[in-house]
Design goal:
The protein is mainly α. It is built from 18 helices and no strands. The protein has one domain (2-464): Amino acid/polyamine transporter I (Up-down Bundle), CATH 1.20.1740.10. It has helices at 9-15, 25-36, 39-53, 57-81, 88-95, 98-131, 140-143, 155-170, 172-198, 221-232, 239-243, 252-281, 293-300, 304-338, 356-372, 379-403, 420-434, 438-464. It is globular. One of its GO terms (cellular component) is membrane.
């Protein structure tokens, strides 16, 4: 049966040879840190502290990082053995069969479509907020998505997604160079916030560090911390965008583990530091419903100029995230087209050996979602789809180990403490998924039913021809 038919490793390797291997460890670190330290670090810590965990929100970040870390180690091993475009989709197709690969890839596709739209919309909101004091105000019809506060199209979201697609269309090396420049600015802004914020911390804001649990609201205690993990987890999914570009890596056996693990470690340190400083500057309850807590905290502490600078650099960070997601999502669409599971035009390369059709398809779909339709209710679907792919990858390590040195190459980096850590990565991802709200699970279920219908009605039949 096609669903269980395993993809040929040699065919995948040969199919991706036309990619130019130009991305270095520095490029991957920039793309990884840029994608992970993006919208989430400037928006989520305060809201999760106020809604779920109080100062204990730092434990939410650390627990989410622990689960993401287990998965990242699995990703690092997979990418050294199979440096293919499409990351989890291609790997699971080789290890378990094309049907399972399609499910994992379809899950990631939801992440990229929605995440590109989500960040584009966040970029628009922050830019409008930054320019408002200068007297710049867009007409409502151009400032908001269709049907939201008199809006027809979010023109800034449309343009920034289009610009990111143009840069990726020019080549992965251009995206890597731009990311390196912008990520330095972003990390500098985060460090500046930490240094300045430390000077205005009030120790009383840390007490109690883990507020008592309120069963009526779900706030406080370990339950509140774990609820925070499910909300925060989307902050750490950026390392998948590194793996998706492994076909374009210089010496992937070394650059992939360094890029994946290195970017996650940097992100964990910065997330924890920002969170601790933020809840120490003001009472956590003050951040309720605040979508820009970092800038607000600085402004309330008398650092209005630095607040504006940090907000401006946050925009640069969101742009890096867009580049990383467009790169990764377009390579996933290319892989689907390459294998005939979606129209083969998506798997065609242009004269510069780039998957141009994949880039523009991703950009157009994301523009439609982010610029024309309200999509906030789909936000948790980003985490839902990714967590399902993560579960497949951690389980895939067991199959990978059995086949290394036989029909698959030996890994140059191996996940430590095998077979325990892959199991912990799977269980951790499952628990985080279970903690998502009912709507996220429902919408992800609908998305997968659509994906399975497309597979049997189109992809499976086309692949047999």
């Amino acid at each position: 049966m096609g669903f269980m038919r395993k993809a040929d490793f040699e065919l995948y390797r040969d199919a991706d040879k036309h990619y130019n291997q130009v991305l270095t460890t520095r490029d991957f670190l920039a793309l990884g840190v840029g994608t992970i330290i993006s919208t989430s670090i400037f928006t989520l810590p305060g809201q999760v502290a106020a809604q779920f965990a109080g100062p204990g929100v730092v434990f939410s970040y650390l627990l989410a990082a622990l689960v993401a870390g287990f998965v990242a180690l699995a990703y690092a091993e997979m990418s050294t053995v199979m440096p293919f475009a499409g990351s989890a989709y291609s790997w699971i197709s080789v290890l378990f069969g094309e049907g399972f690969g399609w499910i994992a890839g379809w899950a990631l596709l939801a992440e990229y479509f929605i995440a590109v739209a989500f960040v584009g919309s966040g970029f628009s909101a922050n830019l409008q907020q930054l320019l408002a004091p200068l007297g710049f105000h867009l007409p409502k019809v151009l400032a908001n998505p269709f049907g939201t506060d008199g809006g027809i199209v979010d023109i800034i979201s449309l343009l920034v997604i289009l610009l990111s697609a143009i840069i990726v269309f020019r080549g992965a090396s251009d995206a890597g160079r731009i990311s390196q420049i912008l990520v330095v600015l972003k990390v500098a802004a985060v460090i500046a916030f930490i240094i300045v914020g430390i000077t205005v911390i009030k120790p009383a804001n840390y007490h109690p560090f883990i507020p008592p649990h309120n069963p009526k609201t779900g706030f406080g205690g370990f339950s509140g911390i774990w609820s925070g993990v499910s909300m925060i987890f989307l902050a750490y999914i950026g390392f998948d965008s590194i793996a998706a570009n492994s076909a374009e890596a210089k010496n992937p056996q070394k650059t992939m583990p360094r890029g994946i693990i290195g970017s996650l470690l940097i992100a964990v340190v910065l997330f924890a530091a920002v969170t601790l400083v933020l809840v120490g500057m003001h009472p956590y309850s003050a951040y309720a419903g605040n979508a820009a807590p970092v800038g607000w905290a600085l402004q309330q502490s008398g650092y209005s100029v630095l607040s504006e600078v940090v907000t401006a650099i946050a925009l640069a960070g969101m742009f890096i995230a867009l580049l990383g997601m467009v790169l990764a999502g377009s390579r996933l669409l290319y892989a689907f087209g390459r294998d005939g599971l979606l129209p083969k035009g998506l798997g065609k390369m242009n004269a510069r050996n780039l998957p141009a059709n994949g880039v523009w398809t991703l950009a157009i779909v994301a523009i439609v979602i982010g610029a024309f339709f309200p999509f906030a209710f789909l936000a948790q679907l980003i985490s839902a789809g990714t967590l399902i792919a993560f579960m497949f990858v951690t389980l895939g390590i067991y199959s990978l180990r059995r086949r290394q040195g036989k029909d698959l190459p030996e890994a140059t980096y191996k996940m430590p403490f095998y077979p325990v850590l892959p199991a912990l990565g799977f269980i951790g991802s499952l628990f985080v998924f279970w903690g998502l709200d009912v709507q996220a699970k429902l919408y992800s279920g609908i998305w997968f039913l659509i994906g399975i219908a497309i597979y049997f009605a189109y992809g499976n039949r086309r692949k047999k021809k």
